[in-house]
Amino acid sequence: AMRLQAPQFQALFTPGLSSVAELFEKKNYELRIAGGAVRDLLSGVTPQDIDFATTATPAEMKEMFTAAGVRLINNKGEKHGTITARLHEQNFEITTLRIDVVTDGRHAEVEFTTDWHKDAERRDLTVNSMFLGLDGTLYDFFNGYEDLKNKRIRFVGKATERIQEDYLRILRYFRFYGRIAEKPGDHEPNTLQAIKENAKGLAGISGERIWVELKKILLGNHVSHLVQLMYELDIAQYIGLPLDGNLEEFARVTKNIQNLSPKPMTVLTSLFKGKDDVTNLDLRLKISKEEKNLGLFLVKHRQELTKAPGSEPLRPYQDFLMDSREANTISKIFELLKYQGEEQLLKEMQEWTVPSFPVSGHDLRKLGVSSGKEIGTALQQLRDEWKKSGYHMDKEELLSCLKKL
C-alpha cells in the first residue's frame, strides 16, 4: 500500500489533531482524512479545510468528546452524521461513514456504516473518493490516485447512478475537470452521454447551489470548452444561461482575461447579448445585487466605453468615473478593462488616484458670488474646465478662469 510522507501531510499534525487522534485510538475507532483534502495532499497542495471520516457513530463521538471535556460546536450537521469538535483553537469536522438509503436527486437519507468501501462508493468522483490514514496509508477503492496522476475525471461506478443521486454532480464534474484535466475535450463518451440524458434534473436544483459551482467553473481552466459543452449537452437552459448564448464572444473574452483574476460575473457576461439575459440569470440563480449590477454595467458599456486613441487612452474611463454618482464605479471599470483585455490600462487605472475637485462654494462666496443658483452654475462650469484639463488645474488656475467666464 502507498504511504504518504509529504511535508504538507506532516504539517497537518497540530496539537489539536494529535489530541483528536489519541482519543479515537484509545476507543479503537478508526479515523481517516477524507475526500478533497486527500486529493490535495496527493497533488502536493496544502488543503484549505480537512474533513475526517470515522467508524464511530455521532452518539459515540459525542460521548467520547464530552467525557474528555472537549467542546462541541453547532449540532446542525448531526443528522447527516457530522460532529464538530474544538481542540487547541482548531475545529475538527468528523463524519460517520454512511450509505445513502434513499436519494431524490437533491438530498439523501443516510444510514451509518463501518464499511469504508461502501462510504467511498457513494462519493461523486474517483479523485474525491479516497481516504488517508493518519499514518499516511492511502485507501483507494476506485483508482482515484491513478486518475489523479493521469488527470482524468471519472464518476465513481456508473455515471448515471451517481448523477441521479444528486444532479448537481453534473456541475461538479465540470468544475473538477477545469481544475485537474490537462487539456480540453478529454472526456469519456459514456460520461457525456449520461450527463446529456440527465441534464434536465438540474431544473430541480436550487439556484444558490448551482451558482456556487458555476462561479468556480468560470474561474477554472478550459472554461470556454466547458461552457460550450454545457450548450451541446443541453444543460445551459436549466441553469439560467441564455438559449442563444454568444459563444464566440465568450471564447474571445475568456482568452482576454486569463491572467487578470476577473470576477465570475465578468466572465459570464460575455455570453449575454443584453440586459434581459442578466435578469433571467438572476431569476434562476439569485445572484447578489452587486453581481447583477456588474453584469448590467458590462452589458451596457462594453461596446462604447473604450480607450481613446492618442496619448491619453484612459481618459474616457476617468471621465466616466468622475461623472458617476454611483458607489463602487471604479471596481466596475476595473472589471470592464479586464473584459476588454486591456492589461496595461488596468494597471494604470489601478495606480491612478481619483483627484478631488479643488474649488468649493465657500471659495466662490469669498469672491463675491452670492446666490446659490449662481454658485451651482459656476461650479459646474469650473468642473467642465477642470475635466478638459485632464483634472490638472489647481484652485488658483480655476478661479482665474472664473473671472474670464
Automatic annotation (TrEMBL):
Any GO BP: mitochondrial tRNA 3'-end processing
Keyword match Magnesium: yes
Cofactor: Mg(2+)
Family designation: Belongs to the tRNA nucleotidyltransferase/poly(A) polymerase family.
Gene Ontology molecular-function annotations: metal ion binding; nucleotide binding; nucleotidyltransferase activity; tRNA binding
Keywords tagged on the record: Magnesium, Metal-binding, Nucleotide-binding, Nucleotidyltransferase, RNA-binding, Transferase, tRNA processing
Domain Poly A polymerase head: 31-154
InterPro entries referenced in this protein's UniProt entry, alphabetically: Bact_CCA-adding_enz_type3_sf (IPR050264), NT_sf (IPR043519), PolA_pol_head_dom (IPR002646), PolyA_RNA-bd (IPR032828)
Name of this protein: TRNT1 nucleotidyltransferase
Residues covered by the tRNA nucleotidyltransferase/poly(A) polymerase RNA and SrmB- binding domain: 188-239
Stored Gene3D superfamilies: Beta Polymerase, domain 2, cca-adding enzyme, domain 2
One Pfam entry name: PolyA_pol_RNAbd
CC annotations in GO: mitochondrion
